[in-house]
Amino acid sequence: MTDRPSYIGRFAPSPTGPLHLGSLVAAMASYLDARAHHGQWLLRIEDVDGDRNVEGAEQHIIASLQRCGMQWDGEITRQTERTALYEQALRQLGDLVYPCGCSRREIADSQTSLRGKQAQNLIYPGTCRNGLAAGKSARALRLKVPTEPHCIVAFDDRWAGHLSQDLTDEVGDFIIRRADGYWAYQLAVVVDDGAQGITDIVRGADLLDSTPRQLYLQQVLGLPQPRYLHVPVVCNAQGDKLSKQTGATAFDQGLPAEQLLQHALLPAARFLGLDLRAGSIDEFWQVAIPAWAALIRL
């Protein structure tokens, strides 16, 4: 196992509800990777979307991590305390940003007419790139993606391998501040990771599709590009990703401390490909960290 002295990782949950098993898998993977590299593991609460935040969720998240023996380094940070950083990034982006007056329905309709059927992912056609149409008012702010040549972003994921995405054809100009005034996830997460010096991002594969946009933002903002590792996501019996929307419950709901190991930590580890034996939570981490290092071939 080789050290990477400058390693700084993070777990960045949104306080929209308690941590479910899928959240625990992501937290565990990021924690194990940081500890296997003898690095730092930071906790950041991504509460920038105020309408989705649930009262008491942050406290529940913190308590769940502590019950599982995961201790972060330094102070907890929160996106709601970092608005000035997002404003600064917006100013830095300058003419690459423009106001957009299009609704999701209008974007979907434009794709239906262009392609003859409804596209699964909404690709922005650039309607407002050269100015708002008469009678339209600004709803959101978008970031221009190069069109000539196409903006093709490639990266090597430590779990999924080499990946690439043509942002021009597959995404289009994307939102960095939403119509409701909240900062978009793409901008906030890139600015936060840059400000905290994050070197390695370990998270769920549901965010793989977002990574090229974040890499592009890092490039135009002049920020270092972290390494990425996206672990598989946990799904329910219907094949849907576990989430609040699909009825996922807290992984530790009703579990006394003595049952966390057998009914939460060990199942999460097995999902990540770690077949472990442990008699206590402390022993679990003692065997899990070197097992993770062997799994990802540190």
UniProtKB/TrEMBL annotation:
Membrane-crossing residue ranges in chain numbering: none
Chain span(s) of sequence motif 'KMSKS' region: 241-245
CC cofactor: Zn(2+)
GO CC annotation terms, alphabetical: cytosol
One matching Pfam family: tRNA-synt_1c
Residues given in the record as Zn(2+) binding sites: 100, 102, 124, 128
Chain positions of motif 'HIGH' region: 13-23
Annotated ranges, domain Glutamyl/glutaminyl-tRNA synthetase class Ib catalytic: 10-275
Domain of life of the organism encoding this protein: Bacteria
Family the UniProt entry places it in: Belongs to the class-I aminoacyl-tRNA synthetase family. GluQ subfamily.
Protein's name according to its UniProt entry: Glutamyl-Q tRNA(Asp) synthetase
